[in-house]
Amino acid sequence: QVQLVESGGGLVQPGGSLRLSCAASGFDFNSYMMGWFRQAPGKERELVAHIGSGGGGTWYKDSVKGRFTVSRDNAKNMVYLQMNSLKFEDTAVYYCFAFGLPKWGQGTQVTVSS
Question: Which residues pair with 73 in a beta bridge?
């Protein structure tokens, strides 16, 4: 079955960095565009970044451009989100997603606080 397991979240001060990881299994990972979504308390889940199946074709939400980098390792079935210069408003639960598959992982909490 499809599984997406996010990790790497935590508590970080403004301006800090975190690297999120997502381990995918149960589907042909190399064939799917992958994305990172986030959901802040009281807000809808939003797309933050995505990456094409071959590693190209990246896209970023305007508010994270220049600060976040999405990447993937198709040999390891992993997708990553490097987050730099974190801001208070980046606080949310972050989820990875395989476009076309109706499956969410448990997410990983990112809290930016001083």
Answer: 78
Cα separation, 21 vs 114, in Å, equals 24
Residue 23 pLDDT: 98
Residue 13 corresponds to which tokens in the numbers above? 């001060």
pLDDT at residue 97, rounded to an integer: 97
61-96 as b/e, with b when 16 or more CB fall inside 10 Å? Answer: eeebeeebbbebeeeebbbbbebeebeeebbbbbbb
- Tell me what pLDDT residue 36 has: 98
| Distance set, CA 4 to CA 1, 27, 43, 85, 98 (Å) | 10, 10, 22, 26, 9
Q: How many CB atoms lie within 10 A of CB 33?
A: 16
Q: Are strands 108-112 and 10-12 parallel, antiparallel or unpaired?
A: parallel
Residue 55, burial from CB neighbour count under 10 angstroms (0-12, 13-18, 19+): middle
- The segments of the chain whose pLDDT lies below 70 read none
Residue 27, number of CB atoms within 10 A of its CB: 17
